[in-house]
Amino acid sequence: MGGIVIIGAGQAGASLAAKLRALGYDGEVTMIGEEPAPPYQRPPLSKGYLLGDMELERLYLRAPAFWEEQGITLKLGAPVTAIDRTAKTVRVNGETISYDQLALTTGSRPRRLPAAVGGDLKGVYTVRTLADVDAMAPEFEAGRKLLIVGGGYIGLEAAAVGAKLGLSVTLIEMAPRILQRVAAPETSDYFRKAHADHGVTILENTGLDRLTGEGRVSGAVLSDGREIAVDFVIVGVGITPLTILAEEAGLEIENGIRTDAFGRTSDPAIWAAGDCASFPHEGGRIRLESVGNAIDQAEIVAENMLGAEKPYAAKPWFWSDQYDVKLQIAGLNTGYDRIVTRGEGASVSFWYYRGDKLLAIDAMNDARAYMIGKRLIEAGKSPDPAVIADPASDLKALLK
């Protein structure tokens, strides 16, 4: 067959395949996905889809007919079992598929609780795939008791859904505060209050000792010895990049599949993009878990597979929807030493500085601040913090 083979049919894989065709590539394109569903959006799974506000068809990244119209072969429900770099082939469902170039967009998987603490009991869920959310959706009945393990964005979004649907929600976070790994204390405080206002019990500095139950979860013993009754559990304790195929094929691994600035792995015929790939960034190396990165990096890789030699310059952005709050994030806050607050109440933004340099912004219900902050960060501009903090200042003027 030859041509380009893409392993992984999520956001990155779909973006890469579509970009190849948009660039005029007319060779064979085969995209292989482990899940049976065509490429779909993951972020709404823990928001609108779980709430019942979004139908399945609206999750799809493209109309199902798009792939056939573009001459892109989709192999779904088809886990790849091996890559033979010498023969330039992949094995899937007993079939051997040859490639000229291969792209790995394998994504990531959620960390699960070990069986030793009850992680294999029925009624214990993670949020990653369509099948995950379809399996847990019937559990969301008003009055039931939901325990969420982990106070990151996935856990908080699930808590918001539970509270809106009338469940009794308890969220535990073993760190001193929710969102500690990803956000400033000010953002943690904002969302802690939002959840408290909706009746969610948040227990920080509190881990899970074990889940209890005979076959199905019915309770939890917390790290402080407290015991609580639960009807079901959602685990949101992070994700790990899916690198097993790359490892078995002998590719270099470094916090994901190691790529150069162009998205090329240690094998010049194999590329990687999305959650599974780490890449050079500002003198270091990072891996980004976001829709924006999956799209942008995959599209650059598509260009480079066709000879562009264009380095990828990440422009990180993220979002989260909880209750009536839309959080929008631009930039990376790593190494910040100062937070500048603009606004107050429901509409507020927190601006991350390291010295005089603007690194990132968290904007809650303030799309204008987010858009201007994003453009400033991408342009390398760092406005005077006093101007940012002054509610009377014209942010748009800072772009001139």
What does this structure look like?
The protein has 400 residues and is of the alpha/beta class. Helix content is 24%, strand content 30%. The protein is built from 11 helices and 26 strands. The strands form 7 sheets. It has a 5-stranded parallel beta sheet with strand order 3-2-1-7-19. Strands 9-16-10-11-12 form a 5-stranded parallel beta sheet, with helices on one face. Strands 22-23-26-25-24 form a 5-stranded antiparallel beta sheet. Helix 1 (11-22) packs parallel to helix 9 (291-305). The longest helix has 15 residues, at 291-305. The mean pLDDT is 97. It comes from Albidovulum salinarum.
Question: How would you summarize the topology of this molecule?
Answer:
Elements: E1 4-7, H1 11-22, E2 29-32, H2 48-51, H3 56-59, H4 64-69, E3 72-75, E4 80-84, E5 89-92, E6 95-98, E7 101-104, E8 108-110, E9 124-126, H5 130-136, E10 145-149, H6 153-164, E11 168-173, H7 185-197, E12 201-204, E13 208-212, E14 219-222, E15 227-229, E16 232-235, E17 239-241, H8 244-248, E18 257-258, E19 270-272, E20 277-281, E21 284-286, H9 291-305, E22 317-322, E23 325-331, E24 338-344, E25 347-354, E26 357-364, H10 367-378, H11 385-389
Parallel strand pairs: 1-2, 1-7, 2-3, 7-19, 9-16, 10-11, 10-16, 11-12, 18-20
Antiparallel strand pairs: 4-5, 5-6, 8-17, 13-14, 14-15, 20-21, 22-23, 23-26, 24-25, 25-26
SS-based structural class?
alpha/beta
Major sheet characteristics: 5 strands, parallel
Low-confidence segments, ≥5 residues, pLDDT <50?
Answer: none
Q: Beta-strand percentage?
A: 25-35%
Query: Helical region count?
Result: 11
- Cα(first) to Cα(last) distance is 52 Å
* Number of distinct beta strands: 26
Strand neighbour order, sheet with most strands: 3-2-1-7-19
> Radius of gyration from the CA trace?
22 Å
Outline: globular
Mean pLDDT: 97
- The helicity comes to 10-25%
